[in-house]
């Protein structure tokens, strides 16, 4: 890893900072100018004007917008993201409590999507215009056209209500003792502390949300890998490998796939952001106690501070996802470092 | 099939016992039209067994704050009524009966209330509940002036403990429905609260309870779930089939809540569902949808201070353009008996039976349109209507369609609830027609009249008609302060008639309370006062 790559990393990180700051300005402004009176919503219709004024004062809502932003941003960088109207907690604490649940869901969905998309994409790409390719196309079409919230509901009806195979809601069984919080990732914590019943329960609770969440990403990656595989197939080095008599699977999975994956990295970064958005619906349907459901509830209840916090977290997720993809891509292909 | 709130063997036995106590204890105050005085029907402690059952409750929202002074709605009432004991409690007939207050007496001038309280109530801390705790709780509520006890602010003069079990409350002016309001007079453990520092321990009580109620706070992940555990020494006693624990989970999505009922993961759900989902749940063998009359009203407010709905002819045109039968029987699948007759629902004390509801009649609507001081063009240029997202949509679309038949254009749109409350905050931002639900917190006329049509309450969604006048204000205030029940009734009847004749709103329907509940959960009784039916030690698992 030379100096060239290190300066590339630094420049990419430096570019991400103004993006996140700009996002915070836009999100904060939008959250304050949308119609609605969150304080009256919080206090109820019978609250007196004095109570409303007191809460507005406590939340600095009686200040001009730019002053509100300065107060908010000053607190934001110190971990004081303001009080959630809905939970009455510091939004930062709420996010930290719930973020591992969402990351666990998204990462597993992403891994699952990759594990399934790669072989399907390779098979479709190497068997162009056969029934295998057509089957892959059907999966891809379904994946991109079925809304995640609808799929989540259908899976719930079939596998919970009709078949009774999976739990309806939550992250772990009510009667299961949660493992001590080490990372907040229940799978990791369960394994690290030997809570095997908790591990089983967590995985059991993850099956349907992960299935609902991963299908869209799986579809996109599958199609991308397929088209890259087809492109690689016509390259000279593949022709040479075939002339040398290398086994077909070796050519497909060692040479063609490696080159196909490098261009999929960009999409993978974007997929991470897409999964955050998808998690909003999936967590809502499965009452999964993650940061995405927290975000939806914040939007429904016009919980200003929580809305801003969640959108910025999602923005950071997008930015980091893309940054990661950029860095990997830059590592794999030195030409993009310049 | 929708079933009425059931009266079973256990309920009969309970009320037979309670009735005996009533006869023995008597009630000095006596009943009146506003339900004051009530019937002391405290149930003696019953230590037959310890509860073992668990209840799961799923709802669209949890409370963010468990301080009884926190101003909120149903979620906060659920925590309040289970962590704390109030002085009085509404019965299924919406009258107040004794709870911690065994008896109460009102002075002849209506300015002093004397409560005799139980001597066997213990706080969760182990401290004995005394008159000093009641005085402290009254002073805290009066000083903070928020939450369900906001009414004490401006009314409270002093409170004094005459002895360990007697409290004297002095107020600035007579208040007819005062005793009814005391079903939210939650008694705090003054020793615990005072030990937690200044500002009436607001910070402490936001996250901790200091009560004597049937349940204690077990675990709380704000925004996710709350769990309660029964308080073994609660003075009302326990039975084995009561619920030892109560887990309250937030499930914002209504279809998931319905499936939680369907899969028996939940015993009870909050009541925010579409009518179709209620019907689906009621068709399930193991789910009952309990129904009961309510002190609520589906209403279409007309903004009486903006043109053209400041003209009574335009308002009357609109009340005659609503097809009430279709709304009630087709949209909500309810009988026409649920048609509203004025602002005060017929099930409420003080309802004026002389009010004849407006009928759907487009010819009459056209006549009123012709009589308006505004031209059709002016009306069509100005009119706008809205409804909070959800069930009211169909009513407003139907009204808009009907008006179109007489060439009146009422564009309607849905907005979020927060935007509705903001729109209500001023005359200028309030649309000409808004369809929503309002109701009395305590099941009494005073509450609803005051919140909807007293000028001091302008700015809330309940008063979106912005209809106030001196004569009406006078009747509302006279009714509120009248000591004589007959006089009070006259004022309330007059007030209702003034409102009805001015048509500041279309009073459409008195909605049913619909509570999805597992069929094996007994003891559920709607009490007409916000979420009081969630006093969980009254519920049990039928075996």
What does this structure look like?
The complex is a heterodimer of chains A (338) and B (543). Chain A is an all-alpha fold. Chain A has helices at 3-33, 38-43, 49-58, 65-76, 91-126, 131-145, 148-162, 186-193, 196-233, 236-243, 248-285, 291-300, 304-332. Helices cover 76% and strands 0% of the residues of chain A. In chain A, helix 5 (91-126) packs antiparallel against helix 6 and helix 11 runs antiparallel to helix 13 (304-332). In chain B, helix 15 (445-453) packs antiparallel against helix 16 (470-481). Chain B starts with a strand and ends with a strand. Helix content of chain B is 30%, strand content 20%.
Topology at a glance:
The complex is a heterodimer of chains A (338) and B (543).
Chain A: H1 3-33, H2 38-43, H3 49-58, H4 65-76, H5 91-126, H6 131-145, H7 148-162, H8 186-193, H9 196-233, H10 236-243, H11 248-285, H12 291-300, H13 304-332
Chain B: E1 3-4, H1 9-25, E2 53-59, H2 74-83, E3 88-90, E4 96-98, E5 101-106, E6 112-117, H3 131-144, E7 156-163, E8 166-171, H4 178-181, H5 190-195, H6 202-207, E9 215-221, E10 225-230, E11 243-250, H7 254-262, E12 268-269, H8 275-282, E13 287-292, E14 296-302, H9 312-319, H10 324-331, H11 362-371, H12 376-382, E15 385-388, H13 393-404, E16 412-415, H14 417-423, E17 433-439, H15 445-453, H16 470-481, H17 485-502, E18 505-509, E19 513-518, E20 521-522, E21 540-541
Parallel strand pairs in B: 1-13, 2-11, 2-12, 15-16, 15-17
Antiparallel strand pairs in B: 3-4, 5-6, 6-8, 7-8, 9-10, 10-11, 13-19, 14-17, 14-18, 20-21
Number of helical elements of chain B: 17
User: Which sequence of strands runs across the widest sheet of chain B?
Assistant: 9-10-11-2-12
Assembly state of the chains shown: heterodimer
**Total E-strand runs of chain B:** 21
Q: SSE order of chain A, as H and E?
A: HHHHHHHHHHHHH
Q: Which class best fits the helix and strand makeup of chain B?
A: alpha/beta
Q: Strand portion of chain A, in percent?
A: under 5%
Largest sheet of chain B: 5 strands, mixed
Poorly predicted parts of chain A: none
Q: Report, as a whole number of angstroms, the end-to-end distance of chain A.
A: 15 Å
User: What is the largest interface, and how many residues per chain?
Assistant: A-B, 47 and 44 residues
Shape of chain B: globular
Q: How many beta-strand elements of chain A? A: 0
Mean pLDDT of chain A: 86
Unreliable sequence segments of chain B:
1-46
Mean pLDDT of chain B, as a whole number?
A: 87
The gyration radius over C-alpha positions of chain A equals 24 Å
Strand content of chain B: 15-25%
Q: Biggest sheet of chain A: strands, sense, closure?
A: none
Number of helices of chain A: 13
